[in-house]
Amino acid sequence: MGLLLLLTSMLLSSYFHSGRVVTAQRLFKIRDITLSIEPAPDVTRDTNVTLRCQAFVSSSGQEALSREYRIYKDGNTIYSKNTSTSEDLLYPLSEARVSNSGKYKCKISIEQKDMTSGAKKLTVAGLSKPLLHINKDVVSEGEEVTATCTAPGETGSFFFYFYEDTKEIQEKQVNSNQAEARLHFSSTGYHKIHCGYTVLVTPESFKSKESLSVTVSVKELPIVAVLEIFPESKIYEGDKLDIFCSVKNNPRSTESINLYLSQGSQLLSSGYSTVNHSMVALAKDPEEFECRLEMGNVRKFDTKAVSVTELFSVPTLTMYPAEVFQREYMTLNCRSETSASERLDRDELTYTLDPTESPLISKVNGVFSVKALLYDFNYTCVAKAKEIVKRSETLTVRPKVAVSTPKISVVGRVVIGQSFKILCQSDIGSLPINYTLLWGYDQLNITTVKEPFQQALFTVTVRKSDEISKYMCEARNGQKEAPLSKRLNATVIVPLTNPILTVLPHLPEISEGDHLYLICGVNGTPPVTFKWYRVGNEHPLYTITTHMNNTNYRVSALSKEHSGMYYCEAINHANILVRSDLVTIEVRLALWKKVLIGGFCLLALSVLVVVVVLCFKSKRGKREAAAELSVRSATL
């Protein structure tokens, strides 16, 4: 129903519109397009292959639609066709070649609408065997040979390779199935040539088999290069060498001849028919001489080595002694170990030092007395005879700095009976330095300082305070006399001993209201830290640090509550804590309290006596009255 309404609307729109007639558009739909490879996607060479492009299109009318087909290989258009038929598009690949291998696609376009098929890969296997042809099979030296390599029936982009035996000698890239190479051979005799090729099919390549070998015979030309050197033997340094480079058996051809005379990599001379060169023979030049002839593509060589006997060997420079201090004299000895006595007198060989600016004293040829400088210095020995000059290797003299008088000190504190370290150190001096610790003048130990920040430390122990001053040290780094330090001066700490707690006033005299002094004393090196404790209290009653060996703690206005047991502790830099014995403090009553109590006691006694007397008198009166009454009664 929807399709019918759409068609009706489009038909109505084909009539008058703004005064003009508009033609109605046809409806169509490209449903699918496929590409197939016949007979198969993998084929061998010479197979007839067909690419079939099949499109499925739906349309609203009977009239055929105009279609454009395109065939792509590896993304590039290789064929296109416009048609109004609905039949499949066929694209033939007759006698397929390796170059036809690749990925193919098919595209259909209808009135600005298009669709592309999926990719299909075609693989063609097999390459033809290459054919090699040469224009000449017998040539003379330098003559050119033209070789042609053909890939029969192949198409595409090629790399052709030409080989002599197994060595590749040329490579050609062409877009045809044939390549030509011009070959030259550097040696005479028989040369076997063959070729091969590779077809490029992006992104792959396919290599062919190798062609049959073709033999080329190269005949030698009679022309030769001749090298002559005079004298021929018994050549010594300083002798004159005459060298000649020439041509023999010149064929008188139209080709120009060039001659090159060289020694090693150095070109000495060049010319056309004859080249000569003169030079002084040197033993340090062992390279061969070469006479090189070039005539077109022809190359000829003649080489000779010259043996030159040394007049004298390269000198060596030595120094004595091996180590020297600043401003000290040393001896530099310059000497050649060997010399040709048959050509050279002893007096003809002279030695000098370079540089000559430094003050030198030389009484014997090659022996120099030199004063060492304050800094490093380079010397070179120069030996000379008959215009031959030879230099020794550079000798670097590094004058040593004499070690300064060492300083002796202690590291940390010195405590009797405990080990401590002694430091010996010089402000200046070349390393290594040997430091020796002395007791009096007896050697105790040696330490060698080899690094800039290394220290000479010695571990010792003293038993008495006066022993510390017996230590000294000396430093030595090769000089004749070793400087000696001063005697060691340091404070010696004596550990604390004999702690005693003294009480003032004396124990029996301690009463309420008195001032109590607890005096703590020790033997040992101050400063001393004293602490007073009462048994039962964890924290000290009083703490003080003093430079005296005894001090006191005062307790004012004593009361009975101050009674108890007391002790003191002491410690100094030896870090050995000492404690006194316990002292028991008993605070007695004050005197006035004793008097008052005595008065009260006397008063109470007096009252008691009075009471007793009164009681006695009272009882006695009563007895007397009763007796009198009894008497009276009896009388009556």
UniProtKB/TrEMBL annotation:
SUPFAM superfamilies documented for this protein: Immunoglobulin (SSF48726)
Biological process per Gene Ontology, one example term: cell-cell adhesion via plasma-membrane adhesion molecules
SMART domains reported in the protein's UniProt record: IG, IGc2
Name used for this protein in its record: Platelet endothelial cell adhesion molecule isoform X6
Keyword flag Repressor: no
InterPro entries xrefs: Ig-like_dom (IPR007110), Ig-like_dom_sf (IPR036179), Ig-like_fold (IPR013783), Ig_Fc_receptor (IPR050488), Ig_sub (IPR003599), Ig_sub2 (IPR003598), IL-40-like_Ig (IPR040878)
CDD domains for the chain: Ig
Span of domain Ig-like: 222-307, 406-489, 499-584
Gene Ontology molecular-function annotations: transmembrane signaling receptor activity
Keyword Chloroplast: no
Transmembrane segments: 595-616
Pfam families noted in UniProt: Ig_2, Ig_C17orf99
Gene name of the encoded protein: si:dkey-237i9.8
Signal peptide limits: 1-18
Keywords (A to Z) from UniProt: Disulfide bond, Glycoprotein, Membrane, Signal, Transmembrane, Transmembrane helix
GO cellular component, as recorded: external side of plasma membrane
